[in-house]
Amino acid sequence: MNLNVTIKKSGMSASDESAIEGFMRFFEAESGISLSRNKQYLVAQRLESRLRATKKKNYADYLAWVQLAGNEPEKRLVVDLLTTNETSFFREVDHFKLMAKLAKEYRDAGKVLRIWSAACSSGEEPYSIAMVLDQYSGNNFWEIDASDLSESMLDIARQGLYPLRASDRVPQRYLKQYCLRGRGAYQDQFMIKESLRKRVYFCNRNLMSDVDCDKIYDAIFLRNVLIYFDANKKKRILQKVIERLAIGGRLIIGHAESVLGLIDGLEQVQPSVYIKAK
């Protein structure tokens, strides 16, 4: 996610400014992400398409309509529009070297390696993990759950269809084994093969809420998520996520992030990788 963009003030009315602030409060309540006041014109820009599509007179009318009871589909659309997902295949290569190592260890021990990609965006991260696990442990010794707040991103992830330029980061051997090049109208796209897609389970989860599963994972990817939250919300997210991590399991975060001073019971074993202590 990346909302670190501002746009110049362009003549917004006081009424619209108040409504946009209302949308920002709504977004924080839904996602936990707090937007600064200098983002209000960015918010207005992102919501403009829905304002027109719903034929509301102004942002105040649109906000009132969004907040009506039972208008859950539009609420999800607003959250999607205000959440920009930045991701790529095989981002931060050291993490995938670790996955290869763990895959071999679990395969040799005859155990299933269970992974959770906790903010998977449009699917590039979990599919990258899946390629590595399948390559190094075979078909029987791994499972991946992948979740995101954005339903529109999850739709893309489940489809597994990406612009061809996104394949630049995918190693050639993985492209040949796990991807299909589009033809005709799809010549500028590529697709993850069904045999790999069906091994990744995608679901909607809000990390600020209780994690609605009882599965315990051997590794959890929580990369480039914590940077968008204040310290209290970081602690809350980490507590909920770590509950689902096995003793001795790895928590993997972004290289620009840290959990030091936020939660006990984690030991850093390499940059951006922590192990849950016994």
UniProtKB/TrEMBL annotation:
It comes from the Bacteria. One of its GO terms (molecular function) is protein-glutamate O-methyltransferase activity. GO terms for biological process: methylation. Its EC number is 2.1.1.80. S-adenosyl-L-methionine binds at residues 85, 87, 91, 125, 148, 206-207, 223-224. Keywords: Methyltransferase, S-adenosyl-L-methionine, Transferase. The keyword Zinc-finger does not apply. Residues 23-278 form the CheR-type methyltransferase domain. It catalyses: L-glutamyl-[protein] + S-adenosyl-L-methionine = [protein]-L-glutamate 5-O-methyl ester + S-adenosyl-L-homocysteine. The keyword Transferase applies. Methylation of the membrane-bound methyl-accepting chemotaxis proteins (MCP) to form gamma-glutamyl methyl ester residues in MCP. PANTHER family: CHEMOTAXIS PROTEIN METHYLTRANSFERASE. This is Chemotaxis protein methyltransferase. It comes from Marinobacter excellens HL-55. The gene is cheR.
